[in-house]
Amino acid sequence: MRPDPVELSHLHPLPEAVVKFILPAPPEPGYLRLLRTGELARRVLSAREELRSCKVCPRQCSVDRLHAMPTGGQLSETQMEQRGAARRVPSYVPKGAACFTGRWARVSSAFAHFGEEDCLRGWNGSGTVFFAFCNLRCVFCQNWDVSQVGEGTELRADDLACVLLDLQRQGCHNINFVTPEHVVPQVLEAVLLAAEAGLQLPLVYNTSAYDSLQSLALLEGVIDIYMPDFKYASPLLAKRYLKAADYPAVARRAISEMHRQVGPLCFDRTGIACRGLLVRHLVMPGAREDSVEILRFLAQEVSQDTYVNLMDQYRPAGAVLNGNYPELYTSRLQRQRDELEIIGRSFGLWRFDQRWRR
Questions:
Q1: CB pairs under 8 A, 24+ apart, for 183-186?
Q2: Which of 52, 171, 272, 316 is deepest in the core (most CB within 10 A)?
Q3: Residue 345 burial (10 A CB sphere; 0-12, 13-18, 19+)
């Protein structure tokens, strides 16, 4: 028998960064309102059209993903082809698609995740859906097999909707879409079907922040919690390590828009996040100035009430392990992370994530 969550919050007092933003009652997930008005269905139609000459993400590939699906309706091994050293992609995905994804989203895994922030994982876990492939090429990605190799299974909208409903049945506190930037239309399709079938959980958009404003407009009122990871502020570093020189400018615009839509992160009375913006920043070797600039941007151009998770768990992974980026071959960043929090507080930021559940 699970303990009463209210009792749990008394056993582990909520941090000030949470207490000052507790809502009297958690709001209804936004997509349910859009479902009742018919707007959610209209968003799905608009998003689906974006796949015809794809401009879903900032890559603006303009390839036809709408008709990129297996012949006969079932993906077979003979339809896979090698693209790059390790990446195997369905042959019907058009060349030039930066995300290597066709009509259907590819899902790597879906489960109750207990490694997320306390305000997301709670005591039952965050219902995390990991999408395969990515529109960035982060050389240090710690999920390399998923984001770059593309391990996973293609799911139609109705199958993905069943995944969301199953996570709800498991008792998860939310649905957490990880790396969804390139599959916004597919996410919306699945959310519509799941909502019609009884989905009632808040939606978390767990992103690299390399999002198009057009996709974010389609998500307005659908997503309850935006969780971007702002990686680099320097175009030079973004080009070298993410293979996207425009990343800093795109991320700034995207995070500002996310904040406009949902505001500061808010919680229910047990400390579970229910609406707002949570910004992650992974502290990286040799990028202290970038981290300082990101913190300054959040404080001065977004809001001093921005909820920030400064993360120090970087470790060499992905292409870094091949020896091509020796400057990234380190993992001792705890002291740098602590120094950055002090700098962030000097800018006026005060809502830094901390572990408080046990």
A1: 183/56, 183/99, 183/101, 183/105, 183/131, 184/47, 184/50, 184/56, 184/215, 184/218, 184/219, 185/44, 185/47, 185/48, 185/50, 185/51, 185/56, 185/218, 186/104, 186/105, 186/157, 186/160
A2: 272
A3: middle
Residue 74 pLDDT greater than 80, yes or no = no
Please tell me the total count of domains within the chain.
1
Instruction: Answer yes or no: is 358 within a domain.
Output: no
In terms of residues, how long is the chain? Answer: 358
Q: Coil, strand or helix: which one is 56?
A: coil
Question: Global pTM?
Answer: 0.94
Residue 282 is assigned to a structural domain of this protein: yes
Which CATH number goes with the domain that contains 241?
3.20.20.70
Place of tokens 């909502």: 195
Q: Which two tokens stand for residue 99?
A: 């995300």
* 40 part of a folded domain: yes
- What average pLDDT is seen over the chain? 92
Taking 90 as the threshold, does the pLDDT of residue 346 lie above it?
Answer: yes
Among 59-73, 111-125, 252-266, the least confident range = 59-73
**Identity of residue 161:** A
Residue 241 has pLDDT above 60, yes or no: yes
Q: Rounded to 5 degrees, what are φ and ψ at 339?
A: -65, -40
CB-based contact 334:288 (threshold 8 Å) = no
Q: Quick check: is 35 in a domain?
A: yes
